[in-house]
Design a protein that fits this description.
By secondary structure, the chain is α/β, with parallel strands linked by helices. It has one domain: Rossmann fold (3-Layer(aba) Sandwich). 45% of the residues lie in helices and 16% in strands. The strands form two sheets. It has a six-stranded parallel beta sheet with strand order 2-1-3-4-8-9, with helices on both faces. Strands 5-6-7 form a three-stranded antiparallel beta sheet. Helix 10 links the parallel strand 8 and strand 9. Helix 2 packs across helix 12, helix 3 packs across helix 4 and helix 7 packs across helix 8. The protein is globular, with a radius of gyration of 20 Å.
Length: 252
């Protein structure tokens, strides 16, 4: 073989090697962590889209009893994956993936209208940083006593949480909401995985639970790649295709 031929063959082998390496590092496992006042059932449409596109999707059903317990539930699911893993968190679930996301299997973090605390910050501490429209959430949200779990009264749920979701579906969400332990919002994070992992974020501009200004501030601080959607806090229900696109972008 001529020198030119050998050079071309080597170049081809190197190109193929690079392509194979890229294919091997592309994430196929997606782990989704739902937020407070919800459960994994709301992610069914996104689950279907991602599965159709060739991804293996697992949804964590965290107990919402405390940050440590919720992070442990997430870590158990990550452990069951082959990796690399795209770790997705909605709302309070953003705090959970921030705490649990330093696992070496995790290749990227996706924050969907989510909290993104730093190490030493508590979720509730961040919620107080920008008042509006969090005042609407505080007015609509009550907590039981002595258990101290948060929930939104059913008659206020749609306006507060899911204004762009059909009424019947929002009613189901209200009647099936999973309450959040108050201590979960008061526990400072011991880890902040976004310092070490690439972050992607969906900023919901019509959110009445987590202020869009707070979302923008957090995502700018972390250097996340931001996609803005004109959506309520329930964007995972109202715009599943748009959310799935961001998750698939993170998998690349």
């Amino acid at each position: 073989m001529s020198i030119l031929g050998k050079t071309s063959a080597i170049a081809l082998m190197l190109a193929m090697s690079g392509t194979m390496a890229h294919a091997q590092t592309k994430a196929k496992d997606i782990v989704i962590v739902h937020g407070a006042l919800a459960d994994g059932s709301g992610w069914h449409a996104i689950y279907d889209i991602l599965n159709k596109d060739g991804f293996h999707v697992t949804i964590v059903q965290e107990p919402l009893t405390g940050l440590a317990e919720d992070a442990d539930a997430t870590k158990r699911v990550i452990d069951a994956q082959t990796g690399p893993v795209v770790l997705v968190g909605h709302s309070y679930g953003g705090s959970v993936i921030t705490e649990a996301g330093n696992d070496p299997k995790v290749s990227a973090l996706v924050y969907v209208a989510a909290l993104q605390p730093d190490k030493g910050e508590a979720s509730g501490q961040l919620m107080g940083k920008f008042a509006a429209p969090n005042d609407a959430m505080r007015a609509a949200t009550t907590k039981t006593s002595p258990d101290k779990y948060f929930f939104i009264p059913a008659d206020k749920f749609r306006a507060t949480y899911a204004a762009d979701v059909p009424e019947a579906q929002a009613k189901f969400m209200a009647d099936s909401q999973q309450q959040l332990a108050e201590k979960a919002m008061g526990t400072p994070l011991s880890e902040a995985a976004w310092h070490n992992k690439p972050s992607f974020a969906i900023l919901t501009t019509k959110d009445r639970v987590i202020s869009p200004e707070l979302q923008r501030w957090m995502y700018q601080r972390s250097g996340a790649k931001v996609t803005e959607l004109a959506a309520s806090h329930a964007v995972f229900v109202s715009q599943p295709a748009a959310v799935a696109r961001v998750i698939e972008d993170a998998a690349k």
